[in-house]
Design a protein that fits this description.
single chain, 38% helix
Length: 245
């Protein structure tokens, strides 16, 4: 199920967007989604910032009393919120700023059903693609955690538990290092480093003689021979990535 947040300070606009989304779901028979309504950017930000709500898609009005939709999106991106964003507005003048926060669509009001449906076709296609790239883990203490592989900076083995250090948080999962590696080895950005670590090569800043520096300022201290082997893997990955650009 997808979670979709609508944010507009005009109740009539919220009604219209929700009606469009309901009609879209019926016509396309997409995966189910839950719609949540917010009358201000502040209310939406508070819900997401407190980790009470993790939306997959945000439909944001730009012109609202208080924070604008653009300001809310900038704040959410600063918090590493990866939700897809569609801006709804009466003006085209903020299109450049919208794409500066990686907005997927920019729709000018008054909304037309056909144009809205076309935009949602693109959005749901992208959400499905992103969902296929996500992994789901049972975290220690109960509960399920869904994450994108690239959100993982590195993993550290602690016997039958594994610590996952994400870009914005940490989580502990009950599984062996072998089980975790079997889950991650299909993503080519991951590499084992000794017996204790699995590192995301996209987050590696430098590899020294006995130390690996990551972009979250973490430092992994390892024996020199392990560092030497890891350096070969890292540079092979790095130069292959460069060739694809």
């Amino acid at each position: 199920m997808y979670f979709i947040a609508l944010c507009d300070d005009d109740e009539r606009e919220l009604d219209k967007i929700e009606d469009f989304l309901t009609a879209y779901q019926k016509s396309r028979e997409t995966d189910e989604y839950r719609i949540d309504r917010f009358r201000s950017a502040e209310a939406l930000l508070e819900k997401i910032t407190q980790k009470e709500y993790v939306p997959d898609l945000l439909l944001l009005d730009i012109f609202m009393s208080g924070k604008t939709g653009i300001e809310a999106a900038v704040e959410l991106r600063r918090q590493k919120c990866g939700a897809f964003i569609v801006f709804l507005t009466t003006s085209k003048e903020y299109a450049l700023e919208a794409y500066g926060v990686d907005a997927l669509q920019y729709l000018v009001k008054p909304l037309e059903k056909e144009r809205f449906f076309h935009a949602m076709d693109i959005v749901f296609q992208q959400m499905k693609k992103a969902g296929d790239e996500q992994i789901v883990m049972k975290v220690a203490g109960g509960g399920i955690r869904q994450m994108r592989p690239d959100d993982i900076v590195y993993c550290e083995s602690q016997k039958n538990y594994q610590m996952l250090y994400l870009e914005t948080e940490e989580c502990r999962v009950r599984m062996t290092a072998k089980e975790l590696w079997e889950m991650l080895e299909h993503f080519n950005q991951f590499s084992r480093c000794g017996r204790s670590y699995i590192l995301n090569l996209n987050h590696v800043v430098s590899v020294e003689k006995e130390e690996i520096l990551l972009d979250n300022d973490s430092r992994i201290y390892i024996p020199r021979n392990v560092s030497s082997e890891f350096k070969k893997v890292y540079f092979a990955y790095y130069f292959n990535s460069e060739e694809k650009l």
